[in-house]
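*** Protein under study ***
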Amino acid sequence: MGRKHIRNEEKKIAIANSQRLALGRCSIHILPISISALILILNLKQVFIGIDFSSLIHSQTINLALLQTAAKLQELLIVASLATETFQLLRHELIHGDGLPLGLLAAGFDFTKLSYFWSPEFAGTLRSIYSRPRKLKRSALVLFLVTVGTLAALAGPSCAVLLIPQARDWPAGGTTFYLNATRDRIWPAKFQLKT
């Protein structure tokens, strides 16, 4: 092939400066934040839903299973939100920062596993922090990863505990009543068999 047939390739945009795109990327955080706020409000206000669960399904076992499923879905939404934040931070460090240690490249996938924090990849990251400049920025990145890893590990159990209703006494009023008998008749000291 000769040089005559070479086409000029269009420039590719590496970073887009679009507010619409930025809002679209932030939309993944709206649902987990809203649901978490609703769960916290319902728990802090101690909403009374009845002695049994008030639902169309009259089986308490099925209702508990559905609440556990909802807690798992909320956990997945929270982890997706944290993963998005982690990938955004790693992407920012790769494009605008000084690069990343090789052990951090997969941190967006691995931060949900607690074993990642004692893996050789993470240990290599910790060693590289002290061998390069800007130790404070790198330490903040590691602290961020440990924080989101802890949040990801605690999101599921926390949602499950908060979603399962607790049996509580509900103050519904009261009254005093009187018995038309003496104390000895109500609580006798001796029992006798009458013939």
